[in-house]
TrEMBL record:
GO molecular function: D-cysteine desulfhydrase activity
Protein name: Pyridoxal-phosphate dependent enzyme
InterPro entries for the chain: ACCD_DCysDesulf, TrpB-like_PALP_sf
Signal peptide range: none
Modification N6-(pyridoxal phosphate)lysine occurs at: 59
Residue numbers annotated as active site: 86 (nucleophile)
Keyword entries, A-Z: Pyridoxal phosphate
Cofactor names: pyridoxal 5'-phosphate
Stated family: Belongs to the ACC deaminase/D-cysteine desulfhydrase family.
Amino acid sequence: MTEMIFNQPLQQLITGHLDPELNWHSRCHPIKGYLPQYDTAPLFIKREDELNANAVGTKHRKYLSLLPNLQHSGIKQVILIGSAHSNNVFGLSQMLLSLGYQVTALVKAPGNRALTGNHLLLNMLLPPSQIVYLTHQEWPKVLQMAEAMSLKLNRQGIKTTVIPEGGYSEAVLPGILTLAGDIQKNSDQLNTQFEGIWTDSGTGVSAIGLLLGMRLLGITEPTVHITQIAGTPEEFHQRYRQFEKWMEKLQRSPLPKPAPKVRLLRPATAASYGSINKTLLKESWIIARETGLLMDPVYSVKHLYTVKCEMMLAQPIGPQLVLYNGGTLGMSGFQSQLASQESIV
Ligand SMILES: *Cc1c(COP(=O)(O)O)cnc(C)c1O
């Protein structure tokens, strides 16, 4: 399936690192309603939510190369790190269990003891002995604890590895590079050159993959606008530099210098990570009615609302592509709030 997807430089670099059985292509279509419509700026949405029914799109692209990497390394046990509602812990657990790996999750104890959303589904996937809850105070040490656990298991002869929060690791690089090539494919099919691309970021890994892939393909004209759902601009740039190094290692040559312009945006409301408020709950309803898209409030609604505010402030010029990186499953933790439209922080 990976033949003839991408043009030469990208294709050669990543073929052989990707699981050929997994889907890498998502469609792109005009977005009707919700965002301000200008004649000079046709708007499109990329349906990363449709890549995988069980794991959100940005995470799925990471798994394209992470899973073959684990397989080639002969890993038997995987230690995952994340919040109780983490899309990565929940998405990757499913993939790993179905492939026969042992999975242990080191999870930040949630404020809310009730089992809902991803946290409920994670408990369905893993027995209590394989979910280790850490307190707020213990959390800064989570990576050290995971590494110690992994060392112990490796000494016992069980080949183990740790996947850091959000999948931040070198092994995801070939997978996240597929996004730029896939956007190029959408662009060819629609016969449209995008002049702005709007995405959201947590660890920044997916957005960085997009930027690096664009550089490799020589697509440097569109500005990439990134709603920073988590983290600071400094953290983003530090990770960008780290992935540039990993990229040079992967392709064994320096990276093309010309790069798309990056704009980091603060969320237009409920800026702190994980928080939602009445505005976002209301916008979730409006987006569903006006676009037909059921979006998760923590990432995707916050992102689309921020894009709307930005586009109202400054009229975009030329075709614009908005990425829907989340998925409807992400709503499941918010059913009662969505029903009552009551704010929580
Ligand atoms: C994880 C996630 C992101 C951000 O991905 P990063 O690679 O961590 O920046 C964006 N949207 C959704 C819905 C996610 O689950």
